Structure prediction request, 218 residues.
Amino acid sequence: MKLDDVIAVKYSEDTAQFADLRPVRRQPMTLHELVGLVLVTTGKQPSRLRERLQKGTCTYNIYRYWWDGFALDDATLSAVLAEFPDPDPARAFRAEDCIWVRVYDAQEPVPHSALVEKREAERRRWLRRQSLWDFLLDFARATQPAYLDYSYYHRADLYRLELSPADRVRLRQASERLAPRALKHALARGPDWVWLELACPRAGAARLPQTRGGQALS
Prediction:
């Protein structure tokens, strides 16, 4: 297998109860594209990635992908992994790069969360000089979120920001005052939010291959 080889990949919706009705589609991928897909489930761990490529199957979102399994030699594996970013704890948070913020509560074992996307939160309400997005970024700049990890799913560096009791009150008040109606309701329905996750994509990070353009198999 070479870096510029094209792999014949098939996929279908991963819904077991409709296994006989699912249309099967094919989507040729380069080795880089396929590895980018598999990294979502394995992380940048060579042994797990190699095992998954040899098995020839991977689940991503609601789709299951499969291909004729193959082995990669050490040189090719190292070369293709070098094309993807590594986590970088020294990378400082840059508010201007942030594209979404997710708020979490303290529920165990799985916390509740709500997603605040830039394109929605930056809309200003009538007669407001500040948007909810402005508030969130100003707050993040003042407190400097801690580096969390690099997400191969989101193609972004993730940061974490803990909220003090006073911060939680400020966030709730800002949401009620600044958030667009739908987002305001989503945030108000939740319990007490205790920390934020912020995503900053890396410049030039490739997106995952899209499934909509796949060709149906006869």
Q: What stands out?
A: The mean pLDDT is 87.
